[in-house]
Amino acid sequence: MAESASVDWDLLHAKATEAMHHAYAPYSAFPVGVAGLVDDGRIVSGCNVENAAYGVALCAECGMISALHLTGGGRLVAVACVNGTGDALMPCGRCRQLLWENGGPGCRIMTSTGVRTMAEVLPDAFGGTDLDAFNKTRP
Ligand code: THU
Fold it and tell me: Whose CA is nearest to atom 1 of ligand 1?
């Protein structure tokens, strides 16, 4: 499935909302759900999971990326992330980096102002090519 393929955003939004209802967010009371379309047509999803040690909370995107690899890998082509009211939620900075690694610049994100690409929401991103470029300079 190419990045240019049509995406059923309503379905992706529904899957993200369904995942949000499984969130474990007793500390922030801010449930999050996310769903991603994989390049083979699968949909993977995740919810946030908090902890009494606040700093180790797992964002919903962490669970989704784990599910991506657990169920066969592949590349994310489209992602919808929602808050507790089902409205589009912009992934935090750390999670944009996770999405970049697993979807790249062309992966599309549902935002409250329309669909945008990862390249738009994480410009000048750091990625594996930076490591490759540096490693080439090593003897
Ligand atoms: N959260 C996510 O799950 N994803 C994001 O991209 C932003 C924040 C969660 C983490 C925490 O459980 C709650 O939202 C409040 O920050």
Answer: 59
